[in-house]
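User: Can you fold this complex?
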Amino acid sequence: MNKLSLFGLLGLVIRRDLLLAMRRRADVLTTLVFFVMVVSLFPLGVGPEPDMLRKMAAGVLWVAALLASMLSLPRMFSADYLDGTLEQMMLAPQSLTMMVLGKIIAHWMLSGLPLVLIAPVLGLQFDMSSQALWVLMFALLLGTPVLSMIGAIGAALTLGLRGGGVLVSLLVLPLCIPVLIFGAGAVEAVNSGMDAISNLSLLGAFLLFALVFTPFVAAQALKISME
Amino acid sequence: MQQAFKLEVVDLACERGDLRLFSGLSFELAAGELMQVQGENGSGKTTLLRTLCGFVQPVEGKVLWSGQDIAEWDDTYHEQMCYLGHLNAIKDELSAIENLQMSAGLAGFSVSEQDAIAVLRRMGLRRKEHLPVRVLSQGQRRRVALSRLLVGDSKLWILDEPLTALDVGAVALMQELIGEHLSNGGMVIFTTHQPLQVAGVQTRQLALS
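Assistant: Here's the predicted assembly.
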């Protein structure tokens, strides 16, 4: 028997969560179907006026992405908590932070990445220009991991509480607002003929900052929840 | 590394909510010793075991492993112990082999498929290795969870009701496995409401009241 390296452990946790999700596909599809439905309902509801649709496209897509990612948050740790796997993770002579990072990455691959990939298709319904679509996709690529990471802290803190789902949203949504503002702002900037680089740089900065701090904080929150 | 392992509990007191469960609890457990924690429902057996794992912080007193407080140990303490709680920590969607490999992986080891199959057969799960755990019975799931003890080389086994849902044959197997573990210099602390006798070893009793 040989010991795993940190990245071996990270890979193992990601593989494990993806394998579990593949055997339980309904959970993964829920997020995506919700996103597609919310975004598709808007053009039907507000009427087919291209100017108005183009103007609100970025905001609608970002708000829908934010809500869709909230939908899957309570599931991030709860299954492992309920069957005792989380206990074993805490007892493991390994970095809990690294395991949490693995779970966050797996969660993003299952709930964030599909949104990034399908967003351009939905954007077409709003008559977005191709340049705006590219920026939207890139902004979502930078922003959705941040949503998963901040969400992980909320999910860890509310573990095992009744009505945890609502509480997660209350805790996490305010913290996600900057991502929403700069993400939608990037697309707005392109639409009004400016450069999106400043908004995208800020999103990138959020991502790096969250990557460094949130796994550690979420791991500490899990320890508190387990007592 | 041949080192004398010893678990010491000094003047331990634990609370759950505002309720004082026990206080002034002291004992030592040395290599090759078996200890059974006894007490009524709600007397703090599980809390004691969880305190030994480090999940629960004691109100007073401390838990020492090889002379050092477990809160001050790095990962070494967790490498040398294995905890099996009320929850099996296995995934319904995965097969018994995958479950064993994953839990070994999380504990920091990789286990080959052959080794996993050998361990599961030893636990009486022949021809069930590739089935999803979902279709197994409660007792068989417990066997999958217990097979985790046999991979890895932990010294201290902390078992909370290990015999739940096990049939007579599996209980005999557990006695045999615990006996082997003790003769290899391991130590076991467990709770159970069923009688568990290991040949050639005096079971020490610890009563919580």
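The domain at 6-207 of chain B is CATH 3.40.50.300 (Rossmann fold). Helices of chain B lie at 45-53, 75-80, 96-106, 113-122, 138-146, 168-183.
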